[in-house]
Specification:
Order of helices and strands: HHHHEHEHEHEHEHEEHHEHEHEHHHHHH
Radius of gyration: 23 Å
Distance between the termini: 33 Å
Low-confidence stretches: none
Mean pLDDT: 96
Length: about 450
Amino acid sequence: MGNEKNQAALDYHATPAPGKVSVIPTKPCVTQQDLAMAYTPGVAVPCLEIKARPEDVWKYTAKGNLVAVVSDGTAVLGLGNIGPEAGIPVMEGKAVLFKRFADIDSVPLCIGKVFQSNGRTDPAKLIAVTECLEPCFGGINLEDIASPACFEVEQTLKKRMNIPVFHDDQHGTAIISLAAILNATKLLGKKMEDLRFVVNGAGAAGISCSELYITAGARRENFIMCDSKGVIYEGRGNLTPEKQRFAAKTDKRTLAEAMVGADVFLGLSVGNCVTKEMVRSMNKGAIIFAMANPVPEIFPADAYEAGAAVVGTGRTDFPNQINNVLGFPGIFRGALDVRATDINEAMKLAAAHALTEVAEMKVDPDTFKALEIAYPKDAAAGMFNGDNPLSLNYVIPKPFDPRVVPHVARKVAEAAMQSGVATIRIDDLDAYEASVRVRIQKSNSL
């Protein structure tokens, strides 16, 4: 960014008050009676009720709508291991998105003193801190924790905690990109089980994306994964257990070699590492998701010129943006509303299918108004027109589409109930979906 944009970003975070979040009471505290209810002596009554019936914590505290955004600052955006203090603005930003898109309250928690002598995460320390948060929070959003520690941290916490634990860097990108792939294959007449994948970037997101695609029907033997040393192949030494699962039986060693005959390229790596020649070597109807930020692995214009059929990036200024805000707000909204004890594979798949459905829905007038305000050029170009607006430039919905979070929440809640991790039931899912939309609109009008 230029100096002017840098200063604008700094000013945004510094004024009128430092940071982006604050705590706002949900009850009045203006009279002596209010004070007596909010604190002593009145507060003792719910305390004793919860002591007698621990499940009443959901009834008398904010736990049911409160998520902890937990990070140790070891893998922040594309900035790397910048430490917990430097990671706070990102976690505050995540809290803003939770509130804006799903009316979920959240607390940024950047954890220090959980590192080994080499500066890497000590999983046991981060696990110990995070599992102690369960009394206060209805869910845990893990964020920007470096691989491979992130895998152990999430899997251990999911076993030890009775509230949803979700590492968004792994699963958010996986869910949203899966939705885009499913809709792209519909348009291109391809089948998931036939697709040949090249995944460039073997960190948390790349591995989790690949695993979810396999759960959705892709075949493990159709994946070639690359890291900074090239193709991950059988016999290559010093592989983590997560990478070992993707060690391919192949004589290909470079990204360029891997791209030949591929159907899907998934980039979670570095900018400008894919050439037009690589795209030309792929199968007809190639799908390119180049998600490095701010510079993608290949720019959309170049990918299209080389013959790609569907191109997506992580940027707002190109079509088919793979943006995690399409996922985590609705996923947590649905999980919280049925008081789920986990976010499992069924719920992740349900979120992906919810996104595919929204992209295919006819846009109602109220939704069109919102989309026209947020995306005037796309609206003017007719992107949202027709009974089914799905197209090669619109394989996933837009982040500011007001139907996204309610529909994702509905499908996630339904999957939680069907898979046995919900502790309360929602009987009328149509009414629930409508109520979530109203709730978010009301929250944003305050």
